[in-house]
Known about the structure:
With 207 residues, the protein is α/β, with parallel strands linked by helices. The chain has 6 helices and 10 strands.
Amino acid sequence: ISNFSGSATFSGFYPNSEYGSINNVIININSTSNFNKEEMNNAGWHVIDSKNIVEARNDLNKALGKKDKLDNLYLNTHGGREEGSLNNSTVTLGEQNFLYTSELTLAYNGGALNPKTERNIAALESIANRVKEGGNFIFGSCNTGLNERFGIIISQNNAFREKNVYLNADITQFPNGNTPLISANQFFNRQTPEVYYRRGWTQFLNG
């Protein structure tokens, strides 16, 4: 586990892509954040807008085809603290579908979940499988890294093993001001305003 001091920037994730390939993807299931797709594409990032994680999996598979593996996958969505718990965090998988730390714990210990949660976890794992070993899976959601449990649990799953998993323990908020679309510069710059910075980002690898 590696902890970042200060608000993280993503200057280290500038692409090294061959022309015509898709090596870096933002999956956007956050309806309040829209990216300037032309700018992001010119910067080497392909943006996919989806309503939920199942749709995102299907959209990603269409975009990549059968062979491509990603260097970087950024999941832009909401997150927070699990209701009734000071220690567990959550990530939103679209259309009011939440994935809680307690559900991940249950799922990876052989427990029974409702069918919708099982489908959502399967879709998330399928997306993670499109990231190459040594690549980066970045949860851009707020507060999903409030503690280490979410990251430890998910990074031990086979779909996420040998990949760097990044979680923000603070608020994720692009400094776009009155700009309707998030630019490449705003994406690569500070993602947590100083006023909200408390803990920073955490990196997980194999738990």
